TrEMBL record:
This is DUF1697 domain-containing protein. PANTHER family: BLL4334 PROTEIN (PTHR36439), DUF1697 DOMAIN-CONTAINING PROTEIN (PTHR36439:SF1). It holds the Pfam family DUF1697.
Amino acid sequence: MSTFIALLHSIVLTPDRRVIMQDLRALAEELGYREPRTLVSTGNLVFEADEMRPHELEVALEEGFEEKFGKHVDIIVRSDCTWMALCSTNPFRDGNGDQVIVRVMRLPVDPKRVEALKPLMTEGQRIAVVGGDLWIDFAGKPSQSKLLSALTTKRLGVGTMRNWNTVCGLTEMIM
C-alpha cells in the first residue's frame, strides 16, 4: 500500500456550488481508496491505495469525479515519494509561504512557454522550472499580479497551483 496526493484543479461545479471536502473523501472511498483526508477546502486529497501508477489514479479520480459531480476536473496525482521530492526542491524558500506557488504539472512544462511568461513579471518576481513543475515567487499578493492570469492550462498544459504553505501542510500529512 502506498500514499498518494491528489490535487484538484477546481472544486467549483457551478457559480454557486463547490465540492465540499466530505464529498471528495466519500468519492475516494467509493473508488476503493483508504484513509482519505483533505487539507483546507480547496481540493487537496491524501489517501492510501494499492501500488498504482499516478496516471492510473488520475484517470480513475477524474472519471469518478465527473460521474459523481457532473463536471470534468483535471486532477494531478503524486506519490508520497515524488511529493517529498517536490517539497525538497523549492528554489524560493526565502519567499513568503503564501506568495511562493508551485504549478504542479501533469507533464513537464515546456521551457519555451515559461520563457513567454517573463514579460509579464514585475520587479522582485522569480520563476524557475524544477523537475518539470513551475515555481513562482510572486513577491507580493499573487492576485495582484498579471502573471497569475497567464498561468492557465491553455498556456502551460494540465496542472494546478498550490502555495508553499499548502505544500508543507500536505507534506506533514504524509510523514
